[in-house]
Amino acid sequence: MISEKMQKALNDQINAEMFSSYLYLSMAAYLESENWNGMAAWMKAQSSEEYTHAMKLYHYINEVEGKVTLETIEKPKTTWNSPLEVFEEAHKHELYISDRINKLVALAIQENDYATNLFLNWFVTEQVEEVSTVSQIVHKFKLIGDNKTSLFLLDRELGMRASK
Ligand code: OFO
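A: This is the predicted complex of the input protein with hydroxy diiron-OXO moiety.
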């Protein structure tokens, strides 16, 4: 059994992961409207991944005989000034999610909930990877600056993710 407090916190995290999915889909829609189809494909893949994160929590709550409660998903932003701005915001968002995961781990420890603590380990590792991946992309954008040819190549490179 899971405590009410832990259950509420995990349900809130389902909402945060669903918002991540929605936000990245909105970023994809913006990028697609600007004809950056490779970057948009990357964001769509990221959006699907976020949905799987939400579902991992969903399954876990049920496994420990808790109750999943879904709440309203906040409306994401719909427009940005440049692809760089999009990826910078994605990076900031992943840092925020990492912080949320850390707080969940702290709560699990405080509650002596070893099973949830162990379950959350996967998310801790995943967040390190997500932050690092987006950070590397932001770095590439900064190196490229306004060079159209390089931006075109980066668009193509990011688009490869969808076909993997
Ligand atoms: Fe679910 O890892 Fe990103 O937000």
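DSSP finds five helices and no strands in the chain. The chain has a mean pLDDT of 97.
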